[in-house]
Design brief:
This protein is an alpha/beta fold and 282 residues long. It has a single domain, classed as Alpha/Beta hydrolase fold, catalytic domain (Rossmann fold), CATH 3.40.50. 36% of the residues lie in helices and 20% in strands. It is built from 9 helices and 11 strands. An 8-stranded mixed β-sheet has the order 1-2-4-3-6-7-10-11, sandwiched between helices. Strands 5-9-8 form a 3-stranded mixed β-sheet. Strand 3 (31-36), helix 1 (47-55) and strand 4 form a beta-alpha-beta unit. The radius of gyration is 17 Å and the shape is globular.
Length: 282
């Protein structure tokens, strides 16, 4: 398999859309990471942490977000991401009924995870804890002040119009081999290079919602932030995370990292820190 998966599977979303799952698992897993990738990416990107945690006896299952694995990402509503992830959680509980499940998110996957964690009535303590990398709570890319209002307007009248994309593929990780993999995935149609106006507006609205609700967070949370993040605004994440109960939060900052902590050159150290945090919770 292309990303060293143990096996592949699918689950059915509430609107009957079939979504692919990449699974890396040891023979007798003692826990499961429910992994949700970032924008424009795909579930196979979790191969680096998944293989590390597989050797530690932890399985990882990552699904491909709807509207991805094509040139331009599109989404009708951010609620679809949240609902899909709850369907994914049901799949996980059905397939791994006897082991603890943790959420593993990166970037927009961390933004989705924040919405999931704050929906306590629906979550019902089915997750033991959350791990976030570079949560996308605010855009770090410098844009003219008219861009966000323009996106909000055009998302209503021209939802499929392409949003300006200033992400530099060379500033996601210092690992050149993974950068080449990203570019090959894009060439092969697995990784998107553009996003629609509707997608952009839904992300902005989801970010705004977090600002008003994150103080209600109730789950153990490990966060890895990037000191040289070119995509997600690290100071904004630090400010928002200060609203959490300090007993729930463990936060580390990788000063030299670009956006993708799970794919950075120091990733094994990051994974060791995550494993040290998660092991007592298993």
């Amino acid at each position: 398999m292309r990303f060293s998966e143990t096996r592949l599977d699918t689950f059915i979303a509430s609107d009957t859309l079939k979504l692919d799952i990449h699974i890396w698992e040891p023979d007798s897993p003692k826990a499961l990471f429910l992994a949700v990738h970032g924008g424009l990416a795909h579930g196979g990107d979790y191969v680096t942490p998944a293989l590390f945690f597989k050797d530690k006896g932890i399985a990882t299952a990552a699904y491909d977000l709807r509207g991805h694995k094509q040139e331009k990402v599109h989404l009708d509503s951010f609620d679809q991401f949240v609902d899909d992830t709850f369907c994914f959680l049901k799949w996980a509980k059905d397939n791994y009924p006897d082991i603890p499940i943790f959420y593993l998110g990166h970037s927009i996957g961390s933004l989705i995870g924040t919405h999931v964690g704050l929906n306590q009535d629906r979550l019902k303590n089915r997750l033991k804890g959350f791990v976030f990398s570079s949560p996308y709570y605010k855009n770090a890319i410098k844009t003219p002040p008219f861009v966000i209002p323009m996106v909000k307007i055009l998302s209503k009248v021209l939802p499929n119009l392409t949003i300006p994309n200033s992400i530099d593929a060379n500033k996601l990780t210092h690992d050149q081999e993974i950068t080449r993999r990203h570019k090959q995935d894009e060439a092969d149609g697995l990784r998107a290079s553009k996003a629609s106006m509707r997608f952009g507006n839904e992300i902005f609205c989801a970010q705004d919602w977090v600002k008003g609700h994150i103080e209600n967070w109730e789950y153990p949370l490990f966060v890895v932030l990037s000191g040289n993040d070119q995509v997600a605004d690290t100071p904004e994440s630090e400010e928002l995370l200060q609203q959490l109960n300090g007993d729930l939060l463990t936060c580390v900052v990788k000063e030299n990292n670009y956006h993708e902590n799970y794919n950075e050159t120091d990733r094994d150290n990051t994974f060791e820190q995550i494993y040290k945090w998660v092991e007592p919770l298993i």
